[in-house]
Write a structure and sequence with these properties.
Length: 417
């Protein structure tokens, strides 16, 4: 007899979990899938090409209605889960209860909205789902449409680039002194800013937001900065980060911290209930990149089948593409005592590389432009390899390790302590 498995949330991690279960344990589970969005799993990372017009939404769907139907999965889409009753082992949805033998909480994350005055005005949105994307697409149909994006991280820049590609005039407002400060150092962030500005996107770094102003129609009309500057806009996109969605788990009595706390097998503190994805907190860490979420899905599929498996939070690298700009970062690239930086800069070709060395180990890397060697640098960081014999030619990548490297003009290479 099949076990009754209920999953709350149909994000990318859930999609991968279902792939494993269907391939590796067909018929083992009678699956019911809840999702607050009125649809199933799609590649959320590809919303940016949908926004820019490169792809349609149908092209980024990973599990369509026919797939769920073919595998006998009961879909409760567009339905919020109101409560979980662990004593009775039931999930209480808006359209009734579902009994479970095993339950997976995969509620994902929610966008953080800065509580500025006016943050709840019509026309103030996050960038999280298809509805947000469609609102930005609709804006571009208006003549002289203007948008302000608060947040110069990856998500905010993707929103800005997508709207700009459709003809919307966009201003990005970022509190830090350079863009994507978590992934890039100052020089790389400034190269990225120059590339965005060349595409017609206005970028204001070191700018603090004060208030969101309403027009006569009650919708957003401008963002006011701390210095009194007003940035007119018809739409304001807030892209300043996400937080694990833990309220349902917390109300159920599941142990939570910043996220839903799980052990190495993705078990929560309540028997029979597991957690997966961006809502998870494991060994103090939260997860926003796809690679660890897919690792979680693989481990949880084995756990649900009663097989031995353990989730390990591995070192990950970040390889990104923003409006055609290739970026890579890995490890810890902060300055510090006992650390050296090797920097290669070619302004003409817009290539920048910075390696951070501590002792005889490569501990961090930031690359803008030519990221082909990113994987090789990442492996050195992850493995803790001794790079002392490679130090003189390390910045030039693996192709130069058996030959004397030649620094091409007009590039600049510097070593700083």
């Amino acid at each position: 007899m099949s076990e009754r498995l209920v999953i709350i949330g149909a994000g990318m991690a859930t999609g991968r979990l279902l792939d494993h279960l269907i391939a590796e344990a067909p018929g083992a589970f009678d699956i019911t899938l809840f999702n607050a969005e009125p649809r199933g799993t799609y590649n959320r990372l590809m919303l940016s090409p949908v926004l820019s017009g490169e792809l349609s939404f149908d092209e980024i769907v990973t599990h369509d209605e026919a797939w769920y139907r073919r595998h006998g999965i009961t879909c409760r889409f567009g339905e919020w889960v109101q409560a979980i009753d662990p004593a009775r082992q039931v999930v209480i949805g808006e359209r009734g209860e579902v009994v479970y033998d095993k339950l997976v909480v995969a509620t994902g994350s929610t966008p953080f909205i800065i509580p500025l005055p006016g943050h709840d005005l019509p026309g103030v949105i996050a960038y999280r789902d298809l509805e947000d994307t469609e609102e930005m697409i609709t804006l571009a149909e208006r003549p002289d449409a203007r948008a302000v994006v608060i947040g110069g991280g990856l998500l905010g820049l993707e929103a800005a680039a997508g709207m700009a590609a459709r003809g919307t005039r966009v201003t990005v407002v970022h509190l830090a002194d350079h863009l994507m400060e978590r992934q890039l150092d100052g020089p790389a962030g400034r190269l990225l800013q120059e590339a965005l500005e060349a595409r017609g996107i206005e970028v204001l770094c070191g700018a603090q937001s004060r208030e969101i102003l309403a027009g006569d129609d009650g919708r957003v009309r401008a963002l006011q900065l701390a210095d009194g500057t007003e940035l007119p806009c018809d739409l304001l996109v807030m892209a300043v980060g996400i937080r694990p969605s833990v309220s349902l788990a917390s109300e159920t009595g599941i142990e939570t911290g910043r996220g839903v706390i799980v052990d190495d097998r993705l078990k929560t503190s309540v028997p029979g209930i597991f957690a997966l994805g961006e809502c998870v907190e494991h060994d103090g860490a939260l997860f926003g990149l796809v690679a660890p979420l897919f690792d979680q899905a693989k481990v949880l599929a084995k756990t649900l089948r009663g097989e031995a498996a353990s989730f390990v939070n591995k070192e990950v690298s970040t390889k990104l593409k923003v409006t055609g700009c290739d970026l890579f970062s890995a490890g810890d690239f902060r300055d510090g005592e006992g650390r050296d930086s090797i920097v290669y800069s070619d302004p003409t070709s817009a290539i920048y590389k910075r390696l951070v060395i501590e002792g005889e180990r490569l501990v961090g890397a930031v690359i803008y432009g030519d990221t082909n060697d990113g994987g090789w640098f990442f492996n050195l960081i992850r493995d803790g390899a001794d790079i002392s014999a490679l130090r003189d030619s390390l910045i030039f990548g693996p192709a130069f390790q058996d030959a004397t490297p030649v620094t091409p003009a007009p590039a600049l290479m510097e070593v700083t302590a």
